[in-house]
Design a protein that fits this description.
The complex is a heterodimer of chains A (821) and B (250). Chain A is α/β, with parallel strands linked by helices. Chain A folds into four domains: 42-87; 97-183 and 412-609, 3-Layer(aba) Sandwich (Rossmann fold); 194-403 and 625-651, Dimethylsulfoxide Reductase, domain 2 (3-Layer(aba) Sandwich), CATH 3.40.228; 678-804, Barwin-like endoglucanases (Beta Barrel), CATH 2.40.40. In chain A, 31% of the residues lie in helices and 17% in strands. Chain A contains 30 helices and 30 strands. In chain A, the strands form eight sheets. A six-stranded mixed beta sheet of chain A has the order 6-5-20-19-18-7. In chain A, strands 25-29-26-28-27-30 form a six-stranded mixed beta barrel. Chain A is globular, with a radius of gyration of 28 Å. In chain B, helix 2 (35-42) crosses helix 4 and helix 3 runs antiparallel to helix 4. Chain B has one domain (3-243): TorD-like (Orthogonal Bundle). Chain B is 65% helix and 1% strand. The longest helix of chain B is centred in the last third of the chain and has 33 residues, at 164-196. Mean pLDDT of chain B is 87; it is low at 238-250. In chain B, 55% of the residues are buried. Chain B is mainly α and 250 residues long. Chain B has helices spanning 3-30, 35-42, 44-53, 60-70, 75-90, 117-129, 144-160, 164-196, 201-222, 231-235; one strand at residues 131-133. Chain B contains ten helices and one strand, in the order ααααααβαααα. The chains are: A alpha/beta (821), B mainly alpha (250). Chains A and B meet through helix 1, strand 1, strand 4, helix 3 and strand 6 of A and helix 1, helix 2, helix 3, helix 5 and helix 6 of B.
Chain lengths: 821, 250
Amino acid sequence: MGLKNSFYSSRRSFLKGATTAGAFGAFAPALLKAGTAKASTSAKGIVSGSHWGAFRATVVDGEWTQITPWEHDPRPSGQLAGVKDAARSTSRVQYPMVRRSYLENGPGAATETRGNGDFVRVSWDEALDLIAKQLQQTKEQHGLSAIYANSMGWKSAGRVNNGRSLLARCLNLCIDGAFVKSHGDYSTGCSQVIMPHVTGGLEVYSAHSAWPTLIENTDTLVLFGSDPLKNSQVASGIADHNAYPYYEAFKKAGKRVISIDPRMTESADFFNAEWIPIRPGTDVALMLGIAHEIYSKGKHDEAFLEDYTEGFDKFLPYLTGERDGTAKTPAWAAEICGVDAAKIVELADIFTSGTTMLAGSWAMQRQEFGEQVHWMLVTLAAMIGQIGLPGGGFGLSYHYSNQGSPAANSPGLPGMSPGRVSEDAAAALKAAGTRAIPIARLADMLETPGGTYDFNGTQGTYPDVKLMYLVGVNMFNQHQDLNRLRKAWQKLDTVIVHEQFWTATARFADIVLPITTTAERNDIDHVGDYSKKAILAMKKVVEPLFEARSDFDAFAGIAERFGKKEEFTEGKDEMAWIRSFYEAAKKQADAKKIPMPDFDTFWETGFVRFEPTEASKNYVTFADYREDPLLEPLGTPSGKIEIYSRNIEKMGYDDCPAHPTWMDPRERLGGKEAAYPLNLLSTHPANRLHSQLNGTSLREVYTVGGREPCYIGKVEAAARGIVDGDVVRLFNGRGEVFAGAVVTDKLSAGVVVLSEGAWYNPVNVLDEKTPCAYGSPNALTADRPSSKLAMATTALSCMVDIEKYAGEAPKPDVFEQPSAS
Amino acid sequence: MSSNNSNFYNHLYLSKLRIYVYRWLASLFSAPIKTGLLLSYYQTDGRTFLADVAVVPCLRPLATQLRDLSSAEDTQATALDLSVAYSKLFLGVDAASHAMPVQSAYYSFENKSLAQRPMAQMNKILQALGLCPHADLHVPADHLSIELAVMAEFAQQLQDEDACPARQVLLDMQAAFLREHLLAWVTHFAQDVQRFDAHGFYSVLAQATHAWIAEDIEFLAASGARPSGSLDGFLEPAKSEGGKNTPLHE
C-alpha cells in the first residue's frame, strides 16, 4: 500500500498535532541543524605515527582513504594497513557503557555474569560521575589498598596520551595515590628481577652493542629463541625499522648465524642460519652442556672470569658435578634438551673460535625457573670472555624495537608526569606491604587477599582489592589460565576500563570509556625507541568516531569531579602540552647546538630528523666496564658480573639457587611430570602486536577457517590424522581452545605453536571451564610463578594435547561477522 | 469540501507526515529509548502520535510495539531491556550478532568497516545542504539516523517550496538520495537486525523503516520524481540544474 493510500480520517488531527508547538517534537525531533559538518580533506598526506611506524594518511571528505609509510622508514611493516583498519573497526567502543547489573544494583552486582554483553549506554557525565564516586567510596570504605590500577601493556604511542602516566597522575591527585601498583611486566618478568643481581642493570631494555660493531666484528651470531625480523616490526613508541638495513648488511657480510630455537624462525630463514631445534624450556641445560665442554677443554677465559666476574668458583663445582654428582656434560645436556651431544661440543668450539654474540630472547625466560635462563646466558658469555668487546658478549633484546640501532644526537622529549603519591598514602601502603604486586600474580591477589608472598627478598601482602582500573591494557590477553582469572575476577566489585575496542577485558568490565585511537588525536613522540632518529608530529588524521575521547580528556573529566582539573591539566589542553614538550626538547637542542625549527614550523612539516652520532655507531655494551672495572663498576654488590649472588643466597629460596642452575620445570617436553604430550609455545605473533590489530582485516592473512592458526609438526599431525585447515581442539587440565591447523616442518618434535594475542573468546561465561572458540593460548597456559625471586609469568611451560575436532566446534564470535546477504 | 481543498489537505498531510515519520525513525535509531521517553509514549500526546502514525500500515506494528512497551509495568526495566538490545545490536558490544546502523558497514560485505566512502559522501551531502548534526548527536554522517534525518529535511523543503521548478529538483534529489543511500543498504541491514535481535523491538523498527522508505520512493515517483537523477548532479555545481548549488539551509 502506497503512502497516498494511507490517508485516513484523522489526518486533520495529525495536521493539527504536527503544527502544535512541541506536541510531536518530543517523538520526532530534528536531528540536524544549519551549520557545517567537519569533513577534512588532505591530499598531501597527514603525518602521524604508531607502534607499527610513522606514516602519511590521505583523507578525503573525512574518510581516511590511504595510509602510506613515512618516506624515511627503511623497511615499513605490512601491519601498517591494520592501523587504518583499526580506527574504522566495528569493534570500536562507541560510547561510555555500564554493565546493566552494575547500573541497577551497584558495585559487586551479579559479577558472575560479566562478559555476557549486557551493557547500557550512558552519557560521559554519568560515566565520569560514577567513576569518581566509586573511586572515592572505595577508598573511604575499604582503605588505601582497595584500588588496583594498571596500565602495564603496549599503551598507545604519544607523550601526552600516555595512559600509564595519566592514570597515575589522576589517581595521585584525586585519591592521594591510594592505589596498588604492579612490579615488572609480562614480557620480561624474570629478567627484570634477576639481571640487576647479575649485571646491575635491567639489560632487557637497555641499549645493546650497535649493529655496525656486530657487522664489523662478530663472527657468529647466536639467536637463542630470538626472531628480530618478525618482532622489530613494532616498537613501544613509534617503530623506526632502522635495524633492518643492518640485518641485510650482516647477512651480506656472510657471517655465521646459528638459531637455537624450537621453531625455524623468519630470522633463521632470512640469515640462512643453521637451525638447531631444541626442546622448549631447556636452554639452561644446553648452555650448561656448552659451558662444561668449554671448561673441560680449557677454552674458558680465566682472566676475564677473574677480573670481571664474581663467584665462578662457586658455580664451577656445580658445573663439573663435584657438588651434586652430576657433571653437566654435553651428553647430560643432550638428554634434556634434545640437541645431540656432538652438536653441543661443536657449538662450544664455534663459540670460542671467534667473536661470538649470544642474542637471547625474552620468550626463553617466560618459563618456570625462568630467572636461570638469562643468568646462564650471561655466565656462558663471561666464560667466552668477550663481554665488552666489539661484536662479542651478549644481548637480551636484539629482537625488540630495532635494538642495536645507533642512537641519533637527539634531545630528550619530556612526557606527562605521573605526579606523586601523597606521603601518608605511600607510608601506609608500604607498611601494609601492599604498595605493588608482581604483575603476573594478579589472580593470586584476587584469590587470597591478606595472603603473604615472597618476592625478590621481600615479603608482601596481597591487598583486598575491590576496584580495578585498567587503561591501555588487555588483562584477558596478557594473563595466564584465563578460566582461573575469570573466576577470580568475580571477586572485584568494580572494574573500570579505558578502551578503543571491545576486547575481552572491556567485555569483562563494569564501566567502559570509549577512547580515541592515536589517529583521532594529536600527540608527539620520538621515532625509534633506540635510534630516536626523529621527533614526529602525531597529527590527528580523522575526527573521533562516535563519542571517543582521549585518555587525557577522560582523566581531566575525572579530576574535575574531585576539584582537581586545573592541577591535572595545568591549564593546558592537548596542543599546549605538545607544544610545551617540543619546546623543552628544543631548549636542550639549542644548548647542544642541535638544529631544531620552532614549534609551528615543526608541526607544519610534521617531523624533525636527527643523525646518528659516530660514537653511537661504535657503541659496545660494557666497554667502559671492561676498560676500567674499578672506575666503571657495575651496579651489583661486588661491582662485577655476579655468577654467584650472595644476595640471592641470603634469600634462601628453594626455587632460585644462588648461581645459574638447571631446574626442571613441572611442565616441559620430556619432563617427568608432564601430563600431556605436546609443549605449547605462545610466541609473539607475526602479523599483529600482542592482541592489537587482531580485530582488523590483517586477520585474513593468517586465520584458518576464521580461527587462530595452530602450527603443528608433520609427525604430530599425522599421528592424530590432522591436515591443514582442520579445526583442532587443544586441551589440558586447565582449559580447551579451538584453532585452525597449519601443518609444518618448521617445528621441533613435540611442539605446537599458538601465538599469544589471539582475542579471548569464551563460549559461555557462566561455565567455569568454557572453551575459547577463537584460539587464545592463555586459556591453556599455567598461572604459576617462575620462582619466589621474580614471581613472573611462566606461559611457555605449558603442556597440552591436540585432536582433530570432529564435532561442530563453537563459532568464533568476538570479531565482525559477515552480513546476512 | 471541494476537490481542490481535498488535494491541498492531502498534500499538506503527506508533506507533514513524511517530515515527522522520517524524524521519528531517525530518533529511534539515534540512541536507546530512555525511561522518560518511553513514559511519554504512554501519555496523551504519545498515544495520539502513535495512533496517528499507526494509520500508515507499514508503521502500525512499530506503533503497536511502542504502545505495548510504554504500557509495561516496570518502564525502567523495559527501557533497560531496550538499551541492552540497542547496545548489542548497534553499538558493537556483541560482535557476532550486531547490525551496525551505518552505511559504511554495508559498503563491502567482506570488510565491514566504519567511516568508508558512504560516510565521505554523506559528509559532502551535509556540507552541500548546509546541515550538521545537533551537538549531542555523535554518529558518523552515514549513520541511519542521519540519513533518515536528511530525508526529513528534504521533506521539509518540499513542503516549504511552492515554485514548480524547485519542487521538481527537490523531488528528484530526494528520490536519488533514497536510491543511492538508504535503499542501497537498509534491506541488508533490516535482515541482519531481524536475524540478531533477541528482544524484538528493533527488528520491528528496522522492518518498519525498510517498508517506509520503500513506499516513499514509490510516493516520490508518483509525485513526479524522475528515476534517472543522480545525487552528484545536485551536489556538484557544474552538473547541477541551472548551475545552482546553494545550501538549502543558510
